[in-house]
Amino acid sequence: ATTSSALGAESQGTIIVEGKSYPTDQWTNATPSILSHISKGLYTRENHPLYITRKLIESQFPGPTYGNYTEKNPVVTTAQNFDVLGFPLDHPGRSRTDTYYVNEKTVLRTHTSAHQAEYFRRMAEENAKEDGYTVAADVYRRDAIDRSHYPVFHQMEGARLWKRTPGMTASESAARILEDVKKLPTHDVEVEDPNPVTHPERNPLQADYHSQEEVDAVVAHLKRNLELLVVRIFSEASKASQDSGSPPEPLKIRWIEGYFPFTSPSYELEVFWQGDWLEVVGCGVIKQELLNNSGVPDRIGWAFGLGLERIAMLLFEIPDIRLFWSQDSRFLSQFRNDKIVRFQPFSKHPECYKDVAFWLSSAATSGTGASAAGGAISFHDNDMMEIVRECAKDIVEDVKLVDEFVHPKTGRKSLCYRINYRSLEHTLTNKEVNVVHEQVRQTLVESRPGERTM
Ligand code: FA5
Ligand code: MG
């Protein structure tokens, strides 16, 4: 039996999303509470911090060069989300432990890159005028529970292409891109590692299609744009913190090598924030096969993808990612589209820790070792997260594995998770927490952890 009755997503063998019905199968793992987030469209609500953040980023990528778009429906095919982008079949991102499947061939997009090929195809049309775009959308990932992770978050993707006309040499193409780099503003923020080494095993030069000179020009344009974006965001953020009386933190940024199946070379931009390096954007030179397969074989260009919540948390100093979903007017009334203001936290309600321990069936493996997509029997951390999400909704702040024990005789394994309950909006009563915690325990028992993939 593979129906997730405990998680309740697959009543009658169909799921309805945005008015469309999809047959379910043994891949289905999208839960009712996840599906309930679709169509909330936080990034389209004026005066919502995600909307303000989106508009600020869009203003860095203006027309007529860039078009600014949104994609409402998160249901995409596995081809769009993975295959077209060159994800290998054994890529962990494809696993049911990491991705919400509607059914075997259909997922809730895990990133805005699922739309890249369509946008490139649009740019190939005869009357297309734009050479680039941004697209904002909600994305879905099975993931840890803590103050910076939520299974629904928002991404913004951007891309810029240059046409190589017939007969144009690689150096002419590079020179023309460098012309565009020269037109960009400069900034005076120190970049700690402006040119990290990229490794040919992971990030080879696409030598069949690109010269080093051209790649250097595209990368220079990409990096400058993203540095300018972060500089802009931080100048807005430090204005807001000065207005609220606290001294601004000096901005420190650095580039590191990244890896994505659809770009080479690839990079990530990190910002030093509250004592640590925080990854804010992944990017790179678009793989030429992807452009060739999307109707634009005559172009070269870059793409990036960033997390809107991550940027908004920096911009407004929002301490918990759940707040973005809050309907509480004490939260919503603080934001206005015409000004970036520091978020004033309302009083924090007390937390309540509870542990839950359970045995896995003897065959099970657990922890970080993700099972093959749809395959081996296992219990994954994310299965636990999902159960807690379904039962506790937004009154859970974080969940951690605190103990693992293997019985010396039977070899059976037990796990102990600590659940930190806390509401952002009211003080939880003991009674309320006990009811939810009991529900978590019941659901765990019913799901027979480790006996089958959830
Ligand atoms: C991607 O999703 C790629 N599609 C990005 C990309 C686009 C690369 C185009 C190259 C070209 P990644 O999984 O690293 O990559 O996520 C991109 C950004 O989304 C991260 O830098 C981070 O800002 C944000 N992000 C990722 N996971 C989370 C999360 N669980 N919660 C909040 N933000 C997240
Ligand atoms: Mg990343």
From TrEMBL:
EC number: 6.1.1.20
Keywords for the protein's UniProt record, in alphabetical order: Aminoacyl-tRNA synthetase, ATP-binding, Ligase, Membrane, Mitochondrion, Mitochondrion inner membrane, Nucleotide-binding, Protein biosynthesis, Repeat, Transit peptide, Transmembrane, Transmembrane helix, Transport
Keyword Mitochondrion: yes
Main location: membrane
Membrane association type: Multi-pass membrane protein
Domain FDX-ACB positions: 347-454
Record's function text: Is responsible for the charging of tRNA(Phe) with phenylalanine in mitochondrial translation.
Family: Belongs to the mitochondrial carrier (TC 2.A.29) family. Belongs to the class-II aminoacyl-tRNA synthetase family.
Annotated protein name in UniProt: Phenylalanine--tRNA ligase, mitochondrial
Biological source species: Talaromyces stipitatus (strain ATCC 10500 / CBS 375.48 / QM 6759 / NRRL 1006) (Penicillium stipitatum)
Source species taxonomy: Eukaryota, Fungi, Dikarya, Ascomycota, Pezizomycotina
Complete-protein stretch covered: 65 to 518 of 823
